[in-house]
Structures are given as C-alpha cells and as structure tokens.
Design goal:
binds ligand TXE; globular; 7-stranded mixed sheet; 21% strand; 2 domains; Aldehyde Dehydrogenase, Chain A, domain 1; alpha/beta; 16 helices; 23 strands
C-alpha cells in the first residue's frame, strides 16, 4: 500500500505539523489502496500565510503571463489523462469509460484561458473607472463525485483572476488531487500560489472557512456542510460561493417523445452511479402516460454494465463509500416502506457482485411528491417517477423542493418548452436533453447554493470591484460596461 506523507505548501511537498494518516478505500474491492497524511489547523495557517505572501506578486501578473501559465497546466495535465482516469477509478469507483471526468477539465481550462483574452478587467461607468481585481486568498473545498473537475474549475478561474489559494479535496478522493498538484508544480505555478492541505471537513475545512487570512471560500458538497461553511465564513465576512445538493425534476409534457425522454432520463440520472448534483432524479409524467413510459425506463436501466471501473466496458461503478452505500440502501428501503411502487432494482447488491459498494439501478413509480425519495437528495442510481395532472401541477411539483439546481423539460412544442423553462426555479434548464456549455453559468437557486461557476460568471466570483474617481480623461478612453 502506497504512503503519501505530504501536503503541498509554499511550493514544496511538506509533512504535516502533526501527521495523521487515513486509508483510501477502493470502493470496488473494499480494500485500502493508499495511506494519506492529513493536515490540521496549523497546516492551514502555514498554507494561508504562503498564499498571502504570494498574492502580492501573483495578483500583479499580466494577463499574458496567466494565459501562458494555463497553457502549461493544460499540457502537463494532458500528459497524465490515463493516470487520472486510473486514479479516480480506484479512489472513487468512477468507470474509465467516463471520459467527461478526465477530459471535461481540459475544456474548462481552455474556456478560462480564452476568456482572459477578451475579458475587460478595467472599464468605465459614468465618470468612474471600474476595476475588477483579484479577491485575494481563496479556500477551495471540493467533493469526491467529480473529484478533478470540481477542483479544476475552482482553481483555474481563481488563477485566471490572479488569486492565490489553499485547496482541500474530499477525504474519500485525495489521490487525484495529489496528482493534480504534481501537474501544477510541473507547470510552474509560482511558489505559494497553490497550496494543498488534505484533511477532514470538520478540522481542515473549518479552519479554512474561518481563517481571517482567507478572503473567499468556494465550496462544493452537501447542503448541510454548505450551511456550516457559510455560517463559519460569515464571522469574517468572506465571500462565499456554494454549489450544493439538488433534486432536479424532468417535466415530460404529454406531447413529448416518451421513449426518448425516458431513455435520456435514465442515462442522465444514473450516469456516475447517480452521484451528480444535476441528476434528474424526479421524473414528472402525465398521470395517463405513466404505464406507457415505465417499460422504457426499465429497459434502459437494464443496459448498464456494472463492474470493475478499471474495465473500459463498465458503465456503472460502485458508489464511493460504505457510508454512501448505506445511505442509498436506507433511501430505497424508505421508498418501499412509504408505499412507492418498485419497478426495478431494490435493496441489496446487484446479482453477481459479492463485494464492493454496488447499488442496483432502481426505479420507483407512484411516488408522492412528499415522500422522502421525492424530496431528499439520494445521490445514487434511484429514480422517482411522479404523476401530474396538468402543466401547472407539474411546475408546482418541480418547484416544490428546497433545491433549485437543475431542471429539464421534454416537449415537441418549443414555445411551450421555453415557457416551462422560464417557470422553473433552478439555475440550469435543459430542453429535450440539450447538452450544456462550459461558457454558461452553473449554480443553484434556493438551497442549492450561492453564486455561479464557469465562464464569465465563474471568473467574476473571484474578482472584487473597485470604482476609481478623478480620472475622467483616462475613463473616457475605456469601454463602457454594459455599453
Ligand atoms: O459530503 P460533504 P459527503 C451530497 C450528496 C451526498 C452527501 C454526503 O447528497 O450523499 O452530500 O456526501 C467537506 N466545513 N453531495 O458527506 O460532507 C468535505 O471534507 C468545511 C453533493 O461526502 O459535504 C469534502 O471535502 N468543509 C455534492 C466536501 O466538504 C466541510 C457533492 C464534501 O463533503 C465540512 C458531494 C465543514 N463543516 C456530496 N464538512 C454536489 N453538490 O455535487 C464537510 N466538508
């Protein structure tokens, strides 16, 4: 079993002040594959000090320098795509077949780099010069379900803005972040600009969110932990960017292509073993069409090949941990107990798999919107089919959630589809399964979060805004914001 004894602070691989180790468990074999040193509050202090010291120079780096830096990071990352894919298969059970997990980050880095070429950091409003300046030292806290992508989006927009940072991955998936740190080191990220402190949420995550030397926290994880991070950060009035849970609804209107909607929904919901915050985990179908749509759902759910994520034929791996496995089992049993109709799947491991945190792809029909399987984020391959009476009823069900991350609508009527998209209280809506764009903002309404990531909206999360007066002549030479 490999030992990883270091954090990365001030440009150097460094042992924690008080080293403690945790085992990284491979969710396919349930065996430990690595032992990783965890830091504590004293390490966060050191990392924040390094990031503060580096901020003076890095915040004044030129746009050209940052573009070249991102280019070098991309090249260094590309050399390791196979390694990334193997590491996240082993630490998080994500199938190697899932190209989005390893190639998606490259696209996000390219978008951030290209944005730097056109973004106006200095402009004019009235007779003021308006400057957008890097916010400072950022704490980046990320989860295990998209271990590299979530981390890359945070750090690349932070670097593009000219910020310095301290990052903490999830305890479940520290290995991919150690590899990513190697990439950044090789690419020549200046000393102190990026620091990695592995550790628990309760200790390291809290030390980061409360630290007076940190100006902003960007957090992706559960709504529960997000509330704690927000409350902690409030004491020092930090900016907080939160990307939290979801319970997204897919509204299938009666004139939709039912088979297409059903198959798409299963793929999108069960992809990544259902561990995606935008998963359409509530399928809203007109009451008269429920029986018609169910066979398509069952057939599509049966197409997944469950098994070892290192095997490229595998399309569904295990869930990440014993804890997640237990939570999902609890939800499935809860659905049965509450009287929902189990259409496929159920409790227990899938047939033929005797170990690993594998879950049966599960579909429930006759789900009441008040049942827990319809209100709580399950974060597993579990779909709730909810009948509705008319369009207003469907919109009311969709919006009747504490979450508001994603929304989906299927109809053959474009105008009607757009009207529904306007009514949904969620940050990202997709019509008839349209693909998303990494230039466009992503984030949540309601308890799904605060702020937006990706593209220009994502960049601006890492920028402060300053109005400068008395330079009218200079201001007049600048482009007007919103002009
Ligand atoms: O998340 P946590 P967990 C949801 C999903 C899942 C549930 C539990 O429903 O079933 O959360 O997963 C750090 N201060 N999502 O327990 O605890 C933690 O160390 C600072 C949705 O793994 O939120 C890790 O780095 N940091 C989500 C990160 O938060 C804290 C993705 C996520 O862990 C902290 C993941 C604290 N007090 C889970 N407590 C999404 N939006 O996609 C924890 N952390």
């Amino acid at each position: 079993m490999k030992l990883y004894p270091h954090l990365f602070i001030d440009g150097a691989w460094t042992a924690p002040v008080e080293p403690r180790y945790i085992d990284v468990i491979d969710p396919t074999t349930e065996e430990a594959i690595a032992s990783v040193a965890m830091g504590g509050a004293a390490d966060v202090d050191k990392a924040v000090a390094a990031a503060r010291a580096a901020f003076a120079d890095f915040s004044n780096s030129t746009i050209e320098e940052r573009i070249r830096l991102i280019d070098r990071i991309i090249s260094s990352y590309e050399k390791r795509v196979d390694k990334f894919s193997e590491v996240i298969a082993r630490e998080a059970g994500i199938p190697r077949a899932s190209r989005a997990q390893v190639y998606g980050p490259i696209q996000h880095m390219q978008v951030a780099r290209d944005l730097l070429r056109s973004y106006r950091f200095v402009s004019r409003l009235g007779h003021a010069i308006v400057r957008r300046e890097p916010i400072g030292v950022c704490a980046l806290i990320s989860p295990w379900n998209w271990p590299i992508q979530t981390k890359v989006i945070k750090l690349i927009y932070g670097l593009a803005a000219g910020c310095t940072m301290v990052a903490k991955p999830s305890e479940n998936s520290p290995l991919s972040s150690l590899l990513l740190t190697e990439v950044l080191d090789e690419a020549g990220v200046p000393k102190g600009v990026f620091n990695l402190v592995n550790g628990s949420g309760r200790e390291v995550g809290q030390a980061m969110s409360s630290h007076p030397g940190v100006d902003m926290v960007s957090f992706t994880g559960s709504t529960g932990a997000g509330r704690v991070v927000g409350a902690t950060a409030a004491a020092t009035v930090k900016r907080v960017s939160l990307e939290l849970g979801g319970k997204s609804a897919n509204l299938v209107l009666p004139d939709a292509d039912l088979e297409k909607a059903a198959r798409w929904n299963i793929q999108r919901c069960f992809f990544n073993t259902g561990q995606s915050c935008h998963a359409p985990s509530r399928l809203l179908v007109h009451a008269s069409q429920v029986e018609q749509i169910l066979p398509f759902l069952v057939d599509e759910a049966s197409q997944f090949r469950l098994g070892n994520p290192l095997d490229t034929a595998t399309t569904m791996g295990p869930t990440v941990s014993a804890r997640q496995f237990e939570t999902i089992q609890h939800h499935i049993q809860g659905g049965i107990d509450e009287g929902a109709r189990l259409i496929c799947g159920g409790v227990g491991r899938p047939e033929g798999l005797t170990r690993g945190y594998f879950v049966k792809p599960t579909v429930f029909a006759e789900v009441d919107p008040k049942m827990k399987i319809a209100t709580e984020e399950i974060f597993g391959p579990v779909l709730a089919v909810i009948p509705y009476e008319n369009q207003d009823h469907a919109i009311a069900i969709a919006n009747g959630s504490i979450y508001g991350l994603g929304g989906y609508v299927f109809t053959s009527n474009r105008a009607q589809g757009y009207e529904v998209a306007k009514e949904l209280r969620a940050g990202r809506i997709s019509f008839n399964g349209a693909a998303t764009d990494s230039l466009a903002p992503m984030g949540g309404y309601k308890q799904s979060g605060i702020g937006r990531s990706m593209g220009v909206f994502g960049l601006e999360e890492y920028l402060e805004t300053k109005s400068v007066y008395g330079f009218q002549e200079e201001a007049e030479t600048l482009p007007v914001i919103h002009g």
